[in-house]
Write a structure and sequence with these properties.
Elements (H helix, E strand, L loop, with lengths): L4 E5 L3 E2 L6 H19 L3 E9 L3 H9 L4 H18 L6 E4 L3 H16 L3 E11 L4 E3 L17 E10 L5 H10 L4 E2 L1 H12 L5 E2 L1 E2 L15 E2 L1 H6 L1 H4 L7 H7 L4 E5 L3 H14 L7 E5 L2 E3 L2 E2 L10 H20 L6 E2 L2 H31 L14 H22 L3 H22 L1 H4 L6 H22 L4 H10 L11 H4 L27
Parallel strand pairs: 1-3, 1-12, 2-3, 3-4, 8-13, 12-13, 14-16
Antiparallel strand pairs: 5-6, 5-7, 7-9, 10-11, 14-15
Bound molecules: ligand ME8.
Ligand ME8 binds next to β2, α1, α7 and β12.
């Protein structure tokens, strides 16, 4: 199992604009999970990218007076920049306009056609350009798409259709037998209910515009942007270009997406894969929306805030930590400046920042800055045992929470240990021990335990706050990138060697004033 590649994906984003907090959200969460799996020693493939075809992008480019391709080439670097600023450790970034994607997508669609999974028909429907999808009249509110607040356009054209309706029973069986296929459960039930009501065949080509991948046997049609986009998950893994790699990497373990695009991922995508007898992704996890003042944040509404605006104040770590910890993953979350400052101050500046500062300062002051030798078992007291027990429980809880795709629970578990270490300081009062010569070995033991706690905490928080974790690691006198460490090998209590020289320094997270910004 552990030799298998752990494959996680974000949605590939529309490039009608630069990234906003909503797009950064699944990207940060995927990065956290990818980093945590690497820490557990897994081979990881973490994919993100951009969705560049379709009417929406064609119109955006037109409004800028540019060809779609030129617009794409101009804006994609801004997406790279945002992910760099957030320390996103993706292994690959796919663009749907790349040859490595377009060729295999044509192969895929041709294979469907050859198997008679596709036929020519005509369609009349209401198309929402924001969703890049046809809408049923009962999905509209006051004649408008509830997600985009715009009236869909009437489209009537000859289209190729995929025989989606044929897969209804197999899909129902999938949702009913595999409870991890669509998560969380509320989304699985929604999808199950909707599919039970019936499935219509899916229009998979368009003729009225040409910004897309041509249908290989009838190039005046372009492939429907969603059918094109979904395939990024397999083309980046080697489908149609590198079979050996594809077999090794695919299926994805997690497609992390927002709840707005569950239908495409949990219904259309598995049906397309079933049609070609390809393995299905293991889990489609749909997270909730980030809301500002009660409204969904989006590129087309004025509530879009740039990640850069927040990174300036909170740093990449503070940004990542807030969204990972504050929102119950899977539910909607409300972003506010005040809650971000409060979370930063309480968890980062106070709990962890103070612990690090106190421990490093005491090692400096009482032990000349050198980590003492590890204690032998008989030297340990009940207080020490309780500290170690909390470490073991919280690291195990963290692993379970990541398995359940619950980053907020994972960090809650890590912080239980951070708070326990602070409570231990209060309990063993090293400053009292320092006044008593008889207690010099006891002082060494407790400061060893605290330094070891800091080492393990750097490991545990490194997937969420990689910069501070690396800094803390270095201040403990440990060398090398934290990214090369493994929980399996380095995550056992007692792994810290005596004799290392620690370094104090500026606060890891200076406290923020509530009025900042
Ligand atoms: O749908 N809160 O791209 P997209 C939380 N290209 N998450 C949000 C959000 C918000 N307010 N707004 C957006 C597309 N998101 C397609 C995907 S995948 C094969 C193709 C996140 O640019 C959320 O994860 O509209 C959502 O699913 C994704 O951004 C959609 O980004």
């Amino acid at each position: 199992m552990s030799d298998e590649t752990f494959y996680i994906t974000t949605p590939i984003y529309y490039i009608n604009d630069v990234p906003h907090l909503g797009n950064a959200y699944p990207t940060v969460v995927s990065d956290f999970i990818a980093r945590f799996r690497r820490l557990q020693g897994r081979r990881v493939f973490f994919l993100t990218g951009t969705d560049e075809h379709g009417v929406r992008i064609a119109r955006t480019a037109e409004s800028k007076g540019l060809a779609p391709r030129d617009w794409a080439d101009q804006i994609v670097p801004r997406w790279h920049d945002a992910w760099k600023a957030l320390d996103i450790s993706y292994d690959d970034f796919i663009r749907t306009t790349e040859q490595r994607h377009e060729g295999p997508v044509q192969q895929f669609v041709q294979a469907l056609y050859d198997k008679d999974e596709i036929y020519l028909g005509s369609y009349e429907g209401l198309y929402c350009v924001g969703c890049e999808a046809f809408k049923q009249p009962d999905e509209l509110v006051d004649g408008k798409c509830p997600l985009h607040g715009i009236e869909p356009e009437v489209v009537e054209e000859d289209n190729y259709f995929f025989r989606l309706s044929k897969y209804r029973d197999r899909l129902i069986e999938l949702y009913e037998t595999d409870e991890r296929f669509v998560m969380p459960e509320v989304r699985r039930n929604e999808v199950l209910g909707k599919v039970k009501q019936g499935l219509q065949d899916l229009s998979i080509s368009r003729v009225s515009f040409d910004w897309g991948i041509p249908i290989p046997w009838d190039p005046k049609h372009v492939i429907y942007v969603w059918v094109d986009a979904l395939q990024n998950y397999i083309t980046a893994a080697g489908y149609g270009s590198d079979d050996e790699r594809f077999n090794r990497v695919w299926p994805a373990d997690i497609h992390l997406i927002g709840k707005d695009i569950v239908w495409f991922h949990a219904v259309i995508w598995p049906a397309l894969l079933m049609a070609l007898d390809l393995p299905l992704p293991r889990t489609v996890f749909a997270h909730g929306f980030l809301l500002v003042g009660g409204e969904k944040m989006s590129k087309s509404r004025a509530t879009g805030i740039s990640p850069h605006d927040l990174i300036e104040t909170f740093g990449s770590d503070g940004y990542r930590y807030y969204f990972l910890r504050e929102v119950s993953f899977g539910q909607d979350g409300t972003f506010s400046w005040e809650s971000m400052v409060a979370r930063y101050n309480s968890d980062l500046a106070n709990d962890l920042g103070n612990l690090a500062a106190r421990v490093l300062t005491m090692i400096g002051r009482y032990l000349g800055g050198v980590i003492p030798q590890p204690p032998e078992a008989p030297e340990l007291t009940a207080a020490d045992d309780a500290l170690v027990a909390t470490f073991r429980d919280s690291v195990a809880d963290m692993g379970r929470a990541v398995d359940n795709i619950a980053p907020h629970e994972a960090l809650k578990a890590a912080w239980r240990f951070v708070r326990k270490a602070n409570a231990y300081v209060e309990e063993v009062t090293p400053w009292t021990l320092a006044k008593d010569d008889q207690q010099s070995r006891r002082l060494e033991v407790v400061l060893y335990n605290l330094a070891e706690s800091l080492r393990l905490i750097s490991l545990m928080v490194s997937a969420a706050t990689p910069r501070a974790a690396q800094e803390l690691w270095g201040r403990l006198g440990l060398e090398g990138p934290l990214e090369d460490t493994r929980l399996t090998a380095d995550g056992a209590w007692g792994g810290l060697s005596g004799g290392l020289r620690v370094r104090t320094g500026d606060p890891l997270w200076p406290r923020l004033d509530a009025a900042t910004g």
